[in-house]
Amino acid sequence: MATRKKTKPKPACCPDCKGSGEVPTTVLVGRKRRAVGKQSGFCLTCLGTGEAPGDGE
Ligand SMILES: [Zn+2]
Predict the structure, then answer these.
(1) pLDDT tens for residues 3-16?
(2) What is the dihedral of CA 27, 33, 36, 41, to 10 degrees?
(3) Cα(27) to centroid of ligand 1, in Å?
(4) Measured in angstroms, how far is the CA atom of residue 19 from the centroid of ligand 1?
(5) Is the model's pLDDT at 39 over the cut of 70?
(6) Which residues contact 33 (CB under 8 A, 6 or more apart)?
(7) What is the per-residue burial (b if ≥16 Cβ within 10 Å, else e) of 3-35?
């Protein structure tokens, strides 16, 4: 069984925004939440840094 070690050789890219710091956010309107388009949104996972959230070394 392979054990997954927690190593940190380098800052990993944010899995959500792929390191861009922005994520496409779907704009929903109406009661049925119909998607009318997408806009660039602030990535809340990395807070716009583009790096995966870690221990904050
Ligand atoms: Zn991100």
Answers:
(1) 777 665 677 899 98
(2) 10
(3) 19
(4) 6
(5) yes
(6) none
(7) eeeeeeeeeeebebbebebebeeeeeeeeeeee
Q: Work out the burial of residue 44: count CB atoms within 10 Å of its CB; fewer than 13 is exposed, 13-18 middle, 19 or more buried.
A: exposed
pTM for the complete prediction? 0.54
Instruction: Dig out the tokens for 29 from the structure.
Output: 């309107």
54 CA distance to ligand 1 middle (Å): 12
Domain boundaries, the chain: 12-37
Q: Any residues with CB less than 8 A from the CB of 11 and at least 6 apart, and which?
A: 51, 52, 54
